[in-house]
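Exercise: predict the fold of this chain.
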Amino acid sequence: MKWLVLAGAIAIAGDVAERDRLMGEFHNLASRNHWGGVERVYADLTSLKMDLPPNLHMTAAEAARGEGRIAEARTRYLRAAVELVEAREALVVLERRFGNVEIHVKGKRVTALIPSKAPFAPDAKAAIELYHAEVSVNRTFAGWLPVGSYLLDGTPVEVVPGGARKLIVVE
């Protein structure tokens, strides 16, 4: 029985050491704005199933947002929002600037989503690029896009702010 307790303690210590090592790597990559690396290390950290500090979730949210993955950013802000006011504020801003949509393109329709005003913010541009990448493969997109008016295969589409998912089907 003592061996089982000792083995469990060694495993926990190993996980803590790995978490600490990964957190150091995470902060090093984030300080260099190496967001792809931040994403990789964040996935490794969350796979450890250990509590992580809210500022780590906040930084990971910024990394996801920079790549246009607004849904993932929102989830990470929510994790950080329990303790960080700035995460709650970031959520409010995010839900004002982006809308939750599900778009299905039927048949061989053109899948280009053309905003009436080109976005200047990098996260907005990246979200539209992510839409194009996903819909070109799957003919569907479920995620967050910048609020505004668009043309989708000549069909006017309006993305409204907030978390209620809007279904858009282009026949």
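Check your answer against the key: DSSP finds six helices and six strands in the chain.
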